[in-house]
Amino acid sequence: QLQREVNVWKNLHHPHVLQFIGLCTLGPSTYMVSPWMENGDILSYLKLYTEVNPLKLLLQAAKGLEYLHTFKPTVVHGDIKGVSAFANIFVSKSGEATIADFGLSEMTTEGNLANNSTEFYMAGSRRWQAPELVRAETKLQAQRTTASDIFAFGLVAVEVSTPPIRHDS
């Protein structure tokens, strides 16, 4: 999985896609290196800075996603998500939204994802998966696409632009 992530990420260069700097090996472990996103994930940032327009950040993230989807070959992110310990839309020191976490990403041409392992198709965060991925019974049905990325991004947009639901007792 590390090699797949590096192979995708190292080719991407866009202001709203987190920059890949390189690899670092310390002892038996290898780490991917990127700029530190000191403002954290998009939702945490918006909770802290209530004066920031969430639509501005969503538009920036959308531009990053558009870049991935128009890159040649197309990059399907495969795991866009918002509110969680593993969110992958972050805000830079300068207040710019960036897309990160390319662990399930694929550079693809039409129909070439069928060679991936079962784990690839079963991975991801169900909360943000398109209905066709959740219902999938075969690898082909579970193939992540630009459309499933857009569905996940839409869910993130709803989470970011609406207040949390209170559950008072």
From TrEMBL:
This is Protein kinase domain-containing protein. GO terms for molecular function: ATP binding; protein serine/threonine kinase activity. It comes from Botryobasidium botryosum (strain FD-172 SS1). SUPFAM superfamilies: Protein kinase-like (PK-like). PROSITE patterns: PROTEIN_KINASE_DOM (PS50011). It holds the Pfam family PK_Tyr_Ser-Thr. Residues 1-169 form the Protein kinase domain. It comes from the Eukaryota. The lineage of its organism: Eukaryota, Fungi, Dikarya, Basidiomycota, Agaricomycotina.
